[in-house]
Amino acid sequence: MSSGPSGDKLIRVDMTNQSAEVVEFPDGWRLLGGRALSARILLAECDPTCDPLGPENILVMAPGVLSGTAAPTSGRISIGAKSPLTGGIKEANAGGQPGQHLMKLGFRAIVVTGAVPDPDRRYALEISTDAIEVVPADEYKGMWNYALCEALHDRYPKTASFISCGPAGELGLSGASVACTDQDNRYPARHAARGGLGAVMGKKGLKYVMVDPGRAPLRRPADREGFAALCKSYTKSYLAGPQMFKKGTSAVVPAANALHTFPHKNRTSGQSPDVETLDGARINESFKERGGTMHNCMTGCIVKCSNIVHDAQGRYKTSALEFETLTLLGSNCAIASWEDVADLDRLCDEVGLDTIETGAAIAIYMDSGKMEWGDSEAAKRLVEEIAKGTELGRAIGNGAVATGKYTGHHRVPESRGQAIPAWDPRPLKATGVTYCTSAMGADHTAGLVVKPGLPTEEMAWESQKVQIVNAVCDSSGFCQFLQTSLDDIRAFYAALYGTPVSREAIHDLGWQCLSDEWEWNDGAGFTDADDKLADCMQQDAIGNPPTVFDVPREIIQAAKQRMPAREDLFASKASG
Questions:
Q1: What are the Cα distances from residue 485, in Å, to 145, 279, 294, 472, 482?
Q2: pLDDT (tens digit, 9 = 90+) per residue, 354-410?
Q3: What's the CA angle centered on 489, arms 486 and 495, to 5 degrees?
Q4: Model confidence over 147-176: pLDDT tens digits?
Q5: Digit-coded pLDDT (tens) for 95-115
Q6: What are the CA-CA distances from residue 266 to residues 45, 259, 282, 412 (Å)?
Q7: Where are the alpha helices (DSSP H) in 241-322?
Q8: pLDDT above 90 (res 186)
Q9: Do residues 323 and 249 touch, judged by C-beta distance below 8 A?
Q10: Sign of CA dihedral 502, 78, 35, 531
Q11: pTM, rounded to two decimals
């Protein structure tokens, strides 16, 4: 049996002098990838007190441990840095091809330091089998993501994928995302969206990263037969199961509405009167007349949750019109039509914006009386204004808290400065515990627990359990929608490296990731007093019976104290 993938490298980029070098990847880090690797690098190298938009911040682009292999749906990439939105450590991850391509070339992460001395200059990082270099990219300054990637698609080999930031990132707006191209290497519709990491990329002067794997093969595991058998058995099991995302995440709209977690009018209600016209089923029904389909955003994906949305003329408009976007840019703004939300989704992808943060900001603006509820055309103009960098555009582009300050409005649903996503912490209180305790702030991917009515004494454990599972999943390269358990992931790791990985070891990996993130935030000045939700979540009741977020402080804090592992930690699904 061989020792598995070897010769892994790190790419270190210094934007101050536009240089790039390749260094050895520490052997002791071989089980660290994605989110856990990003956290370890930031803890070791990034000053938590730095200006998030200054040259001292460090931007990490790290594929998962299994990216670049034949493991199903395993090519996700994590983007990490100090968040300009929360002021804490942040990881946001995305699908698409760049994670797969980087790992096929043997690169475990890109670590970007410094910033261009001239803020008007733009540069690109080119990575291929032949060379790695930073090159001028001034001609792409200010370009929207789709136009940029169309131009890059014509310039580079068709095998190349791209990571880019739109004008929101270049403007340093705290709601800015990092875009990745999809399986066709063309459409920048896969976003590492949360936390404003696009602004970190933009302020460093890095407009895009090009990754061309050429004909690089898949990574070869140590136990080739065992790895192949795992891939086959897991794929067979998944495809024989319920495949809950077969019609996309937008299909959960009716269930979320029934649970009072389909927020309406800036979360003054948990249900929308427009649930029928925002239901993802309407998107799937459009495929017959307009074209479009469900597809996989990356090579090797078996979930295929991404919907390709066409307009009435049958032309491509956007892809992955997801539940979170339908909720925050739709129901939360009282916008009634999924087609208007599709337009807004495309605009956010173009400008490079988190649809959750942007939808929350627009809803606050509407709630303050500055815009009519449900005015979709005004909302579209507002997103376009963000790209122009006007005073109002900057307020909205900087997110929910900035919009609350700009309007003087009191109802700002957030935690740690980040807008609360669709899954509401009042009916789903264990999810609220995650929002309070995760270093990420209000982020459903950190630990979503869809268990309404859960006994209070179980909330801390359920939150901690899913936070650990999701931290490991986000480090592995697997998509959370694949619903891999810790036992599944450690089996894949063991076959990849030819070394057994115990339950204790995989548990330690997840807990260490969370601990690294909490330690980093401690250094940034966060305390237990910051582990809370906005007052409106504790005061404004929704649901039947009406409920607020009222989890006792001792339960919230218990989620940050390591509990003995129970059987359901290992067998639980990553979705909670």
A1: 35, 29, 25, 9, 9
A2: 999 999 999 999 999 999 999 999 999 999 999 999 999 999 999 999 999 999 999
A3: 140
A4: 999 999 999 999 999 999 999 999 999 999
A5: 999 999 999 999 999 999 999
A6: 39, 17, 24, 8
A7: 253-258, 275-278, 280-290
A8: no
A9: yes
A10: negative
A11: 0.97
Distance of CA 383 to the CA centre of its chain: 20
DSSP state of 466: H
Q: Which domains does the chain have, with CATH numbers?
A: 9-212 (3.60.9.10), 245-419 (1.10.569.10), 429-571 (1.10.599.10)
What are the strands of the beta sheet with 107-113, ordered from one edge? 19-24, 9-14, 107-113, 59-63, 77-82, 89-94
Is the pLDDT at 477 greater than 60? The verdict is yes
CA distance 447 to 572: 12
**Given phi > 0 = left and psi -120 to 50 = alpha, else beta, which region is 22?**
beta
CA dihedral over 41, 46, 48, 50, signed as positive or negative: negative
- Mean pLDDT rounded to a whole number for the chain: 96
* C-alpha–C-alpha distance, residues 170 and 193, integer Å: 15
301: nearest Cα among 141, 457, 73, 89: 73
